[in-house]
Recover the amino acids of this structure.
């Protein structure tokens, strides 16, 4: 007996055609048989076993198990896992290309893709920070209209990778965010974004420590050094003085290097070295904190100047009034030169406020914000209980109302 019950049958397509023909023949033969044997009252003929076997469809699960199995889909891998070495090489190339103003836009977008892909890790954070440092060293300012959007996108995305940076790098990134994100948001045409950015600047001013006399002295010393370096005319002064290195003095104190062989000298040197390292570490932290506060103050002063330049825009005036007033109230948190700048800015704002109240500005035109304009408009407006009907006090709609 054959294993395949359907061996010898035609293919399914041909079997269907033959099935239709056999059904038609069977229908005709059955009709004829019924007509001939109706007088004899004979029972109907039994169905043809050959026809029954032909009408039975093969089950795919029994006849062909491979056809019942699901088909495998062909999928292509769209992402590749790059090694840490490849990521570092890519970051080094980006750091070299991002210095070029012509390539800054494309390089910044590739840097954003590295952040979004999770390529910034503790092992690659130093090379990523070098990209940001190279971007801020660009000759074009970060608030320049040609690169403003790219700077904003890059440093907004860079805030997602702060957990991989050390304390010094985080402080530097905070300052760069103020210059590249907040300062550019102050140039927006969206009143909501402008107000939100002013709120962040107010919060940053409130978090500054109170300036001390040491800060004022350091600022004056830095200004004098800058004047000496540039000769007061912007040209760099060359210093031809020579300072003897410290290594030579150490060699003179111990020309034969015998102190290293003495046990007591070694123990004393280790203790002294440990104390020096701890003191140097504390001093380095203090210097880093001082540098961070100084850079933050400078970035916030730059934001105040950018906001003041937008005072001619009517919807910006109220927000700028509040922002500059907050800076003036916290003027003690800035150094001597910065305090003078804030006081002058606040005096200018108050003068323009007085001119606005008098209905005139520097340009000679009416300079009021949206709220003041609506206040003046509806101050003399007659409001009717009929709302929009007869709102100006006229009675034109009385006949229509009946």
């Amino acid at each position: 007996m054959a294993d395949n019950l359907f061996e010898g049958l035609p293919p399914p397509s041909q079997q269907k055609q033959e099935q239709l023909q056999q059904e038609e023949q069977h229908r005709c033969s059955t009709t004829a048989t019924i007509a001939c044997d109706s007088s004899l009252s004979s029972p109907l003929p039994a169905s043809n076993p050959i026809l029954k076997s032909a009408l039975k469809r093969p089950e795919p699960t029994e006849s062909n198990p491979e056809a019942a199995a699901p088909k495998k889909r062909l999928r292509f891998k769209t992402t590749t896992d790059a090694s840490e070495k490849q990521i570092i090489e890519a970051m080094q190339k980006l750091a070299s290309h991002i210095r070029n103003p012509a390539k800054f836009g494309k390089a910044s977008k590739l840097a954003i893709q590295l952040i979004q892909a999770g390529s910034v890790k503790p092992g690659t954070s130093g090379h990523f920070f070098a990209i940001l440092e190279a971007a801020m060293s660009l000759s074009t300012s970060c608030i320049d209209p040609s690169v403003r959007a790219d700077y904003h996108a890059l440093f907004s995305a860079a805030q997602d990778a702060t957990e991989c940076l050390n304390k010094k790098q985080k402080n530097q990134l905070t300052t760069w965010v103020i210059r590249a994100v907040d300062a550019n948001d102050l140039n927006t045409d969206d009143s909501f974004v402008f107000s939100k950015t002013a709120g962040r600047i107010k919060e940053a001013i409130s978090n500054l420590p109170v300036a001390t006399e040491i800060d004022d002295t350091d600022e004056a010393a830095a200004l004098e050094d800058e004047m000496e370096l540039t000769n007061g005319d912007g040209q760099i002064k060359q210093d031809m003085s020579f300072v003897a290195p410290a290594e030579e003095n150490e060699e003179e104190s111990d020309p034969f290097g015998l102190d290293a062989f003495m046990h007591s000298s070694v123990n004393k040197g280790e203790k002294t070295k440990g104390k020096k390292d701890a003191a140097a570490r504390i001093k380095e932290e203090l210097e880093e904190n001082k540098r961070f506060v100084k850079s933050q103050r400078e970035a916030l002063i730059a934001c105040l100047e950018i906001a003041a330049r937008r005072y001619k825009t009517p919807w910006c005036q109220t927000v700028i009034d509040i922002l500059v007033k907050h800076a003036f109230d916290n003027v003690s948190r800035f150094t001597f030169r910065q305090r003078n700048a804030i006081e002058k800015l606040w005096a200018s704002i108050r003068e323009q406020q007085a001119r606005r109240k008098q209905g005139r500005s520097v340009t000679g035109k009416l300079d009021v914000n949206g709220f003041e304009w609506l206040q003046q408009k509806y101050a003399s407006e007659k409001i009717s209980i009929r709302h929009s009907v007869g709102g100006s006090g006229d009675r034109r709609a009385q006949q229509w109302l009946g």
